[in-house]
Predict the structure.
Amino acid sequence: MKIYAPTIPVCQLDENNYFVGMTTADLDPLENNGHYLIPRLCIQAEEPTIKKGFIAQWTGDNWQYIEDHRGETVYSKETGEVVAIDEPGILPATVTTMPCPDIYHQWSEKAHSWVEKADAAQLRLQNKRSTAGTLSRMQMLSQLEISLGKNKQALVEAAENAMSGIELIKIRNYILETQSFALTNELWWDFLTNILQIQQDNVFVMWEKARTI
């Protein structure tokens, strides 16, 4: 009488026939012909070779190896944000393994890398202005007097010599009445850089100095 092993190794699969691991099948106690009770989603086959970056999938006859990028960090070419890879397979054409340096870059298929946006300098300037915060009336006007030797009246005169109409009225009121100054105010920014002829980099230097007043 032939003696059968009480268990045999079998390959366990998931719902998509991807290899999960090895388990065992028990000998059927009601049969005497070596029949084994194969668990659901399991097959009697040789264990597939482990290949880095791939997962084995049962075709019905043999193992095929599919790229597996699950767990890798990849980035959207459109937004630069991290994208989760949930399924085996080749990486989508919409993602890259190279992280985006910052918000001033965009993906270039031609260069196959992140390149600076055409308006990167302007975007950096806008961001720097928007994060500069505000200064009080005393801080702003005191720093202009320290840096340029121009008091409040001198600033008004500079505006009157270079501006007219509603823009002049707005900037004059801004100098005389406002309680806080912000670089995000387009009219004030233009007044500092165009009328007072302060270089953009120097505006930010002046702004930081004013914070200490």
